[in-house]
Amino acid sequence: MDNYQATATDSESSENLRQDKHFHLQKAVNKHTNHLAENCKKFLMEEIEDIKQPVFWRAVMAEFLGTAFLVCFAVAAGMSDESSSPNGLLFPCIESGIFITIIIGTLGHISGGHVNPAVSLGFAIVGEISWIRCILYTLSQMLGAIVGAAIIRTVAPSSMYRSFGVVGPGLGVSDVHAMIMELLITFLLLFGILAAVDKGRKDSIGSVPLHIGLIVSLNMFAAVS
């Protein structure tokens, strides 16, 4: 009888211990869930607050215009008449770098002058811009690129279309090699931009727009060739 009572007591203690562990585990899960919900709510409120500001939409429009003009002039720099020799690498590479310098100097105080979805994504990842701003920047840049290409196609004679600014892997270059090169030059671009605008810098690199424009030209010379 005593052994039976001892066994029953042990079973009851084990059950109480199991329930106690389950209670504390559930309490911890609820605490973390509530904390996550509060953070998500705070994040969404900050995102919504961002798009309510008039300067937000002015920045989105600036990205649209900047990308439209960039694509328009970059494509134009590489076009040539069928009866003449192609412009080659020199014009597009130098023109793109110069135009990026002008765009950043002109629109930098409004939107940052990203004119590139990769740049906007990089700034969102490091917390310099909100994610909703990144998404709308990207959409405006894509639309701007389409409009820019449409403008130059409208004003340029058909004899100058050729490949119309379309680029692809060179002779003997595989898709994998081309992708690796794109990753490298995109990394260099973002690394150079984020380093140039780093708020913790104590030194001066001179003109930030010129710094970024030179990176763009360097990348194009390295990749297009």
From TrEMBL:
Q: What does the UniProt keyword field contain?
A: Cell membrane, Membrane, Transmembrane, Transmembrane helix, Transport
The GO cellular component terms are: plasma membrane
Question: What does the record give under GO molecular function?
Answer: water channel activity
InterPro entries given in the database record: Aquaporin-like, Aquaporin_transptr, MIP, MIP_CS
Q: Where are the transmembrane segments?
A: 55-77, 89-110, 131-156, 176-197, 204-224
Identify its membrane topology class.
Multi-pass membrane protein
Q: What is its main location?
A: membrane
Compartment(s) = Cell membrane
Provide the family line: Belongs to the MIP/aquaporin (TC 1.A.8) family.
Query: What is the name of this protein?
Result: Aquaporin
